[in-house]
Design brief:
With 274 residues, the chain is α+β, with helices and mostly antiparallel strands. The protein has one domain: Fumarylacetoacetate hydrolase, domain 2 (Alpha-Beta Complex). Helices cover 25% and strands 27% of the residues. Strand 8 and strand 9 form a beta hairpin.
Length: 274
């Protein structure tokens, strides 16, 4: 029986593959001991390495919250990863296309992004969770796969940044207490159209996200982190991207992606890729 592969070894492998834009075989293919708890230990080592080279964690991304895609990707529960100051962009600050050259097999995901005003706690209902939010925005996450053909097991995705590449968010819409019921209803029932070069490429809805919408995804992450003493809990000031509302679609330079949202007081988002 082989000895377990140290988490730090996997972390260095993942970061080197990312830096050289080189795909690698899934880690689970040669390390039978890489289950989900072990993968999160690898992710923690990756975080330490990124901190050491000057990157700053600014929030989390939740992946695989869209239950309609679980069969496609062979997963059965959400995952999460860190978002860094080097991977977070604000649409209003962009002066040109988003370059794809640094990403491997990139795909695009329309998501709802939350900005936290205070730290949420396990057991909160929707009203209490909403009370922890400072703002809501629509976002695009550009995800990537270091594993060829998007073939992997769930632990591989956790180790490899949660498949995170970049997160671009649109206008921050403040949450006001008097509008809380409208936000709760809207976040549970809105729909979205994802357009590529002006033509609808896919459609999605809040119900795709764990059956209850983005607040359900946030609640799931809070509960997961509460059970994992090795991972830092959510804190005030963090952003949380709550998972794709549609399929994750391949992207290419020169494309323009836009969204149209119905049933939620958020403007759509546009993004040009280069």
């Amino acid at each position: 029986m082989r000895d377990p592969v140290p988490a730090a070894t996997h972390a260095r492998t993942i970061l080197a593959a990312h830096e050289h834009r080189r795909q690698i075989a899934p880690l689970t293919g040669w390390d039978a001991g890489l289950d989900l708890p072990a993968a999160y230990r690898v992710a923690a080592e990756v975080r330490h390495l990124r901190l050491a080279r000057g990157e700053r964690p600014v929030g989390r991304k939740i992946g695989f919250t869209n239950t309609t895609l679980w069969e496609t990707y062979g997963v059965h529960a959400p995952i999460w990863g860190h978002v860094y100051d080097t991977t977070l962009l604000e649409r209003a600050a962009l002066t040109g296309p988003i370059p794809l050259a640094a990403l491997v097999e990139p795909r695009i995901e329309p998501e709802i992004v939350f900005g936290l005003a205070r730290a949420p706690e396990p057991g909160m209902d929707d009203a209490a969770l909403l009370g922890c939010l400072d703002w809501v925005a629509q976002g695009f996450e550009i995800v990537q796969s270091l594993f060829p053909g998007w073939r992997f097991a769930a632990p591989d995705t956790v180790a490899a940044f949660g498949l995170h590449g970049l997160l671009v968010h649109g206008a921050r819409v403040p949450i006001t207490r008097d509008a809380a019921p409208v936000w709760i209803d809207g976040l549970a029932g809105f729909s979205i159209a994802l357009l590529r070069d002006g033509a609808v490429a896919d459609r999605g809805s809040a119900r795709n996200v764990l059956g209850g919408g983005p607040l359900a995804a946030l609640r799931h992450l809070i509960d997961v982190l509460a059970k994992d003493p090795g991972s830092p809990p959510l804190a005030a000031g963090e952003i949380v991207s709550t998972g794709t509302l549609t399929d994750a679609l391949p992207v290419a330079a020169g494309q323009v992606w836009t969204t149209r949202i119905s049933g939620l007081s958020l403007p759509g988002l546009d993004l040009t890729l280069g």
